[in-house]
Structures are given as structure tokens and as C-alpha cells.
Amino acid sequence: MNKAKITLQSLDNGDYCLSGVLERDTVPAFWRQRCEWMPQGSKVTLDLSGLSRVDSAGMVMLLHLSQQLINAGCDFTLLNVPEQLKTLLRLSHVESMLAAYIK
After folding, report:
1. pLDDT tens figures, 78-88
2. Rounded alpha-carbon distances, angstroms, from residue 59 to 7, 8, 22, 34, 41
3. Structurally, what CATH architecture does the domain formed by 6-100 represent?
């Protein structure tokens, strides 16, 4: 059985692609290593089209990541947000926290 993983690929000009499985088994190690992968720059676009699964731990990680980027003064955008994540945001009553950043 393959162990689930999550990766962040840097594309160009502040564009990043998050892919894999963003869930309770992958979030802790990924978050601990955020100094290595934390997006830099004044404009950050995070494409989520490569995510095959997102659970509530992944949702919370994205909320924290967005807050860090926004607090750092980044122009932050989320692209291709999976329906599964939109549903989690809505059911958790936190969709308003990311609504302005989802394109």
C-alpha cells in the first residue's frame, strides 16, 4: 500500500500547484516543513487542481496558510478549488474566510 503524500510545486511568478492527498495523515509533516515550501512573493496563486482528496485537517491547513500569506501582505488566490473542499468549508461555516480568495 502506498503512503499518501502531498507536494507543492513551484511554477513561476508566484504560481504554485498543490497535489496529492491533503488529509490528517499528510498535513502534520507537510506543515512542519513549511519553512522549506512556504510560498514567497507579493502575489501567490495556489492551484488545487492536483488534489485527489481533502479532509478537515487539510481544510484547516489551507485556512492557516491563507492567513499567514494574507498577514504577510500577499495578494493571495486559490484556483481550481475541489468541490469536496468547498463542501467542507460550507459545512464548517468558514467559507466566508476564503471566499474572497477563491477564483
Report:
1. 999 999 999 99
2. 15, 16, 8, 16, 23
3. 2-Layer Sandwich (3.30)
